[in-house]
Amino acid sequence: MQKIPKIIHQTYPTKDLPHPFATITTRLQALNPDWEYRLYDDQDVKTFIAQEYGQEYLYLYQRINPCYGAARADFFRYLVIYKYGGAYFDIKSLCTQPLQDIIREDDEILLSFWSPDSGYGRGWKELTWSKYGELQQWHIIAIPQSPFIKLVIDKVIANILNYSPWTFGVSSIGVLRVTGPIAYTQAIFPKINTYVCRFGPFDQDLGLVYSGLEAGLHHSQIYKFYYDHFFSPIILPSQKLKYLSWYPPSIYWKARRIAGKIKRYILQTVATF
């Protein structure tokens, strides 16, 4: 009997999915008709956390700046998989074959890296020790109470409690460090030989697809708000510290982004002469 429960979890701010995402979720369900499908909107997420983890965890979730929906979705995916197990997919992601053909009876968690030619997941200074860079967490397929996922939850909570925009950063890199794949990899990798897991080693080896969107369409074009466009802190500060800790780092990181663009433009211009 398969250890991983036959439940697919996904989340989106509302149940009214944009057509491109709705098409993908329909394909995912059609491939897995014997799997229970659960789509959680923002209110469902809050209700789940409050009921299954309590007000302390809900407080931590709500400390995550709401403009960074990706970070809130990160924290939720760890909590829901730890509670119920099953397969979590980002709303744009899916599989190329039925999950019953991907998952083995004795699997407890599936792990994978980005393929070397994908252009993703490498170059982070925090993960120089990892040959293939970050572990993917746009899919999480695991048993309930996975010790690996517990490590990730503990890591993310520590990051939330110890967050500083000066050290963790803001915008997309801040999300990657606080709740995303950098935190996921940092939590799991030291214990990779301690608990049961199976490597892909890459997503395509497992029959998983990062984006099922049509060629030329990026998910950032569909989202009303995309986390890479923001420069406020990932974690909301206390009221006492708000005006001291919020604005200076935001200005600093935005200035760095602009300076980087100017530098690249100058280098490209010089290269044409």
Protein model, in words:
- Helix content is 43%, strand content 12%.
- The protein has eleven helices and eight strands.
- The chain has helices at 19-31, 42-52, 55-63, 69-84, 99-102, 147-161, 165-168, 171-178, 181-188, 242-245, 247-271; strands at residues 7-11, 36-40, 86-89, 94-95, 109-113, 139-142, 198-202, 208-209.
- A six-stranded mixed β-sheet has the order 2-1-3-6-5-7. Strands 4-8 form a two-stranded antiparallel ribbon.
- Helix 1 links the parallel strand 1 (7-11) and strand 2.
- The radius of gyration is 19 Å and the shape is globular.
Please tell me the CATH architecture of the largest domain by its name: Alpha-Beta Complex
Average pLDDT, all residues: 89
What's the assembly state of these chains? single chain
CATH class value of the largest domain: Alpha Beta
SSE pattern, N- to C-terminal: EHEHHHEEHEEHHHHEEHH
**What coarse outline follows from CA principal-axis ratios?**
globular
Give the helix level as a range of percent.
Answer: 40-55%
Strand numbers in spatial order across the main sheet = 2-1-3-6-5-7
Tally of structural domains:
2
Radius of gyration using CA atoms only: 19 Å
Structural class: alpha/beta
Give the biggest sheet: 6 strands, mixed
Which ranges are low-confidence, i.e. pLDDT below 50, for 5 or more consecutive residues? none
Span between termini: 66 Å
The beta-strand count equals 8
What is the percentage of strand-forming residues?
A: 5-15%
